[in-house]
Amino acid sequence: MAKVEKKTIKASEMNPKFKYEISKMHGGEKLMRCFQCGTCTSDCPIARFSDTYRPRQIIRMAQLGLKDRVLKSDTLWLCASCFTCTDRCPQDVEVASVIRVLRNLAAENGVVPQVFKEQCSSILESGYAYKIPELRLKKRESSGLPPLPKGNAESLCKTLNGVGFLKHVEKKGG
Length: 174
Ligand code: SF4
Ligand code: SF4
Fold this sequence. Notes:
Elements: H1 18-23, H2 39-43, H3 45-49, H4 55-64, H5 67-71, H6 84-88, H7 95-108, H8 114-126, H9 134-142, H10 153-162, H11 165-170
Helix pairs in contact: 4-7, 8-10
């Protein structure tokens, strides 16, 4: 089993205003209630299969104001948004929503993993998150299956533009 990398925290990394910034956002209001019991991590289906993904740790980094560290963390993007952590937290911390808030902040800062940028390009091109290989389409046809419905890329593009998503994805740094 791979070891979780432990980096020393420097006082200069801590931004004391960060927790207030998050607490003002929808879903982040109860961040400061977390008393680090670890229930979210122990019930998280992703943490079960990952050596590095720990929602409790993400919440603590946010509380401590480790803004750069948490926003640049790849693990932030592993959350499946299943809300198990939110349902189980004894302090009513909306863990999944805090993670969503952090992802939005990361995207605003241009930090979006390449894999999601590629998915986004594919959606904008075809309406599908993944490019479906020609071979698979032929296989469908030869198996007597109907053609796949056409994705509505134009409407998706309008929606993503409307919520300001595209300009964040286009930023460099992710
Ligand atoms: S379950 Fe709630 S209180 Fe416990 S560590 Fe997670 S967020 Fe904090
Ligand atoms: S919402 Fe994310 S952090 Fe919470 S239990 Fe599900 S995968 Fe884990």
